[in-house]
Amino acid sequence: MFNPGALTCGANPGSPVTPDYDGPFAFTGTLHSVTLDVSGDLRDRQRRTIEAQVPELLHRVSWLEDLPAEPWQGVLIANEVLDALPVHRVVQRGAELLEVRVGVDGTRFIDVEAAPSTPALFVRLAAEGVTLADGQRAEVCLALDDWVANAAACLARGVLLLIDYGYLAVE
Fold first, then answer.
1. What is the pTM of this model?
2. Most buried among 5, 81, 99, 161, by the most CB within 10 A?
3. What pLDDT score does 10 carry?
């Protein structure tokens, strides 16, 4: 069984093992730390930072590009991951909900309002108890449930700690 002890993912330009890390959790070196990050550039910068600042801990850190495929035990810390997931932008126009897409006008990007790309947008807003006022905009993350379910499913035993900042759905 894969047992890193701690798996971090999200807003982490350094690494929890470096002395200058100012994230919510500092790494003591007693466990193996795994950082999940899809950015190859960020992984390389983290590795170089650890090599320069605490080379004696480099062997206790590894990187993944996706959640572990096999169940594991430990703490999964997801800092600023949920609000980095893709969203659909919507706006209420009278009685009609429209999706706000990106268009091009000459050499600049513009907002283009169109029919929603999926009925799941209506379902999600209703499930959250959100009713938009005329002209009100919102972002709807349809990937949220699957990401959290997959993160929880990969834990045989442990804790999933999700840290994000922002407004409540009704706001």
1. 0.71
2. 81
3. 58
Q: Give 49's contacts (C-beta < 8 A, 6+ positions apart).
A: 14, 15, 18
Structure tokens that stand for 91 in this block = 């706006």
CA distance linking residue 54 with residue 51, whole number of Å? 6
Residue 120: name the closest of 102, 95, 146, 94 by CA.
Answer: 146
Query: What amino acid occupies position 159?
Result: V
The three-class DSSP label of residue 99 is strand
Determine how many CB atoms are found less than 10 A away from the CB of residue 37. Answer: 18
pLDDT tens readout for residues 5-39: 566 665 554 455 455 554 444 554 455 667 776 67
104, pLDDT greater than 90? yes
The amino acid that residue 89 corresponds to is R
Q: What is the CA radius of gyration of the chain?
A: 20
The values of phi and psi at residue 134, to 5°, are -55, 125
- Percentage helix, strand, coil, to 5, in the chain? 25, 35, 40
Torsion angle of the four alpha carbons 147, 153, 159, 164, in this order, in degrees rounded to the nearest 10: 10
Residue 153 burial class via C-beta count within 10 angstroms: exposed 0-12, middle 13-18, buried 19 and up: exposed
Rounded to an integer, what distance in angstroms lies between the CA atom of residue 100 and that of residue 71? 39
How many residues appear in the chain? 171
